[in-house]
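Entry for the shared binder. Reason: the reviewer on the internal report wants the predicted structure included alongside the sequence.
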Amino acid sequence: MLIEGNPGKGFHWQYLLYIPDNLRKRTVIMVEPNNSGTVSDDMDIHRLRANNLAQDRAGFASALNVPVLVPVFPRPEKDELLGTYTHALDENTLRATAYIDGKSIARLDLQLIAMIADARERLESRGHIVSEKVFMMGFSASGAFTSRFTAIHPDMIMAAAPGSPGGWPIAPVTTWEGIQYRYPIGLYNFQEITGKPFDLGTFRKVPQFIYVGEIDRNDAFDLRGFPEEDAIAVCNLLNCEENNLIAERWPVAEEIYASINSVAEFRVYPGVAHAITDQMYSDIMAFFKKHDKRRKGNSAVIQLLLDD
């Protein structure tokens, strides 16, 4: 179903909600941010691609027995907003105050939270008991959105699976090897951008499945705003050369996450380029099932009672 924006509830943009047949009573919403793959001021393009994404996830959602929420966020083409990569939740997006056709693009992360609350109300009106926390997954730009949203709002996430997240998952540190890691590479200016401190204690406990293909060369490493000397130092460590293999950064990312005692899992898939394979889908499915707290720990008899 397509839900219209509701500024009174905190969201200006539409979202799609897919509800599987015979959805279990106790459930958790799966959120996947939309990723149109292009800039356009034609919202029909973003709506169509968000709808295609929701339809593509229908089988996955049914197998996992969860509803899926896909926002229909814009990705503006107009000159004054061209550097605002909304579908990746970049720094410009978090700072944005603009309106497009009378609709605000300010704090799309908070608008997504409002959409989640609205979807939860709709599901609860149907008799479901819905977790306050959500699953979140995404790939490429939406993988970057997922990684960054998880850092900003770890209290919202039951488990997250960001794939090939813009060439790099957000590093949960302000500095590494003496270099300031600005958002979205790291957290150096996190509080100034988001208006709140980073919740390290909650973030390190969030299960994450951070994956990439071994021969993925789709790099959107975002060093905008970095002082030149810091950008050079980061690139010396993480290789910013054109056509590089972004999987070569994964050991560094894993080391950084381990330094804060994060429970995140990292995976590199041999021979895979910028794509989600059947094996990846299978592993993501197993990951979410493992961390589904709406089922975890219940005996078969108790679970049947809960789902009645």
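Summary line for the report: The two ends are 25 Å apart (CA to CA).
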